[in-house]
Amino acid sequence: MAEEEITVNNTISAEEEASMINASKSRVVFKVHLAVFLILNLIIWTLKFTFIDAFVKDPYDMSQLLKLFICITLIWLLIVILHYFIAYRWNKTFMEKELSRIKKQRAKQLKEIEKIKAKIAEAKNKQQNPTE
Fold first, then answer.
1. How high is the mean pLDDT of the chain?
2. pLDDT digit string, tens, across residues 15-44
3. Burial annotation 47-73 (CB, 10 A radius, 16+ → b, else e)
4. Which of 32, 40, 83, 94 has the maximal Cβ count within 10 Å?
């Protein structure tokens, strides 16, 4: 009997499975994004320090170029960090949260409707049997 309970508890609904598939997809996409970020930044900064420094002689141009590289890297890093939070920390989308909130509201409404129906049925019974 304990084995039956374990197998029943291990079943996954279609909705849960779809949610897990979406979470895994977003995590894989994040890992690819992180890999692209690291590889391209490695290439960009290597090119900057090997080739561009050799060709750009004006210190003002060099400082402007350095500022540009730093800005691009920092902005992209912020985007990667945001992507991480979306993939790992905020794995329930806002739509899923809203859907769950609406389902809870609907369940409360259905309970209230059942209570009202019970009161109506009780009132009808009292009208049909006034002696009770």
1. 82
2. 777 777 877 888 899 999 999 999 999 999
3. ebeeeeeeeeeeeeeeeeeeeebeeee
4. 83
Classify residue 13 as left (phi > 0), alpha (psi -120 to 50) or beta.
beta
Looking at residue 131, the DSSP 8-state letter turns out to be T
Both tokens of residue 86?
A: 């979306």
CB atoms < 10 A from the CB of 21, how many? 10
CA distances from 45 to 30, 49, 113 (A): 22, 6, 65
Through-space distance between the first and last CA atoms of the chain, rounded to whole angstroms = 47
The answer on pLDDT for 69 being more than 80 is: yes
Grouping H, G, I as helix, E, B as strand and the rest as coil, residue 37 is helix
pTM: predicted TM-score of the whole model, two decimal places: 0.57
Burial environment of residue 27 by CB neighbours within 10 A (0 to 12, 13 to 18, 19 or more): middle
At 118 the three-state DSSP class reads: helix
- Which bin fits 12, alpha (ψ -120 to 50), beta or left (φ > 0)? beta
99 vs 104: CA distance, rounded Å: 9
